[in-house]
From TrEMBL:
Gene3D superfamilies: alpha/beta hydrolase. GO terms for molecular function: palmitoyl-(protein) hydrolase activity. InterPro entries: AB_hydrolase_1 (IPR000073), AB_hydrolase_fold (IPR029058). Residues 51-121 form the AB hydrolase-1 domain. It comes from the Eukaryota. This is Prolyl oligopeptidase family.
């Protein structure tokens, strides 16, 4: 397993993200709750990767953690689209096997993303 954190730029917003990869299996696009930051989810994600043999991409919403901007409903929807667009352009994953996972606020974010992108996601 390897992991890295980096920045993603979209619509003049700099996002912080973690990509944890096994290079096998599907890639889970993980949307978190509104409390805390993505680093607080790493133990849960480690167990998920171990049991599901998957990659996990976690984006810090605008205004959260080290990401720029201020949180808003419209902004977070745009953030989720930026994350999906980033994943679909990667060459090191199977882009036909992207699965959305969300908890609490992240569940609503993921539901909107799936509704808006049925052709890009594994349902």
């Amino acid at each position: 397993m390897w992991r890295y954190s980096s920045n993603l730029y979209s619509s003049n917003i700099q996002y912080r993200f973690f990509f944890l990869a096994s290079r096998i299996g599907p890639t889970i696009l993980f949307f978190q709750e509104n409390a805390g930051n993505i680093a607080h989810r790493l133990e849960f994600v480690r167990i998920m990767m171990q049991r599901l043999q998957c990659n996990v991409f976690m984006l810090s919403y605008r205004g959260y953690g080290e990401s720029d901007g201020h949180p808003s409903q419209h902004g977070i929807i745009m953030d989720s689209q930026a994350a999906l667009d980033h994943l679909t352009q990667r060459k090191d994953i199977d882009t036909s096997r992207i699965v959305v996972f969300g908890r609490s606020l992240g569940g609503a974010v993921g539901a909107v993303l799936v509704k808006n992108n049925p052709d890009k996601l594994s349902i």
